[in-house]
Specification:
globular, mainly alpha
Amino acid sequence: MTFAELLKSKDMTGARLARKIGVTKESVCNWTRGKNSPSNVIIIANIAKALGTDMETVLNSLLKTAENKKI
């Protein structure tokens, strides 16, 4: 599951996630497109908490997004 798919499965928009974790919506947009990834483990932990999931799920979705970008 990509990061965008994870957001959708949790009924979360990028803008809403950005507000919840204190980052810009552009940052979340870049993560969903695989342009870059969250800069530190605290942000990843905050994403997991906001989505009601664990850090491993978030990390795996970010990795899947990055892998798809390379294809």
